[in-house]
Write a structure and sequence with these properties.
- With about 280 residues, the chain is an all-alpha fold.
- The chain has helices spanning about 5-75, 80-90, 90-95, 100-110, 120-130, 130-135, 140-175, 185-190, 195-225, 230-245, 270-285.
- The radius of gyration is 38 Å and the shape is flat.
- The termini are far apart.
Length: about 280
Amino acid sequence: MENIDPPEAKTVKGGKNFWGNLLRTVLGTTISILLTFGTNALIQQHRKAQDRKMTAMMVMSNIESFARTLETRSERMAPNDSIAAWLLCMSYEDLELLPSNELNKLIDRATNVATINHDHTAENVFSNNIETWKNVNNVQFIDNVGSCFSALNGVEEQFNQWVMGVPDALHDVKINPDKYEGSTLPMKMMHSDRVRTAMKAIHNRRCWLRYAAASLRYFNLQNMAAIGISEQEVIEYTNVLEEESEDTGTPPDANSFYTSAYTLDSLTTLTHLTERIEELKAEKE
């Protein structure tokens, strides 16, 4: 006779299987959810870390780039410095021997200094976006960078004010020539105390630009220490940006866009008007 389990036994066995399967399903789902959220959290954390580093690299590279601009400008002002020094060393009697046009060219070469203008994109992104501050989440770094940008803008403003003051001094001589000694306008410029002071300042300004560059780099090192990024990383990042900028090719040549003005012979679509004029001339005769 076959063994037949009582109905109760089957119910109990089926119940165990049901609850076991349910438990395994719940555990599997829970683990899957935990893994999903955990993975997403890790991905978000990694992205935030990347964004934080990219923001820091961008602003510190901007400061390094400006320091390089200051050094480059100081080097490019060497001819201005040399010519200005020569003009100031020469006596008025010696300068009077030079033809007026030659002396005028020397004064132009000495006083022709360009202003400095840097890209404010990185500064604006960092300073005007509260989300950037939240992402960086480093009060010391934010304060240090803010101070660097303030100093950077101060250097640019002071230098440009001085640059703009040089042509003002020359212009004063041009509109008030009778106020100054000298037989020619260039000689009157050389007799101007404002012009001579501007020429004397060229050398000091060159030195000041190099000092400002070194100071910005010193404070930028503090930024790097606060955020945990090495100086080498910032230098390499800046080099790459400058190389990419150089690889964009040469700017368009304005002369290549200009063509010769139309002549009467080239206006073939308006020949009938020319012929009309000729007819009117003939009738008048």
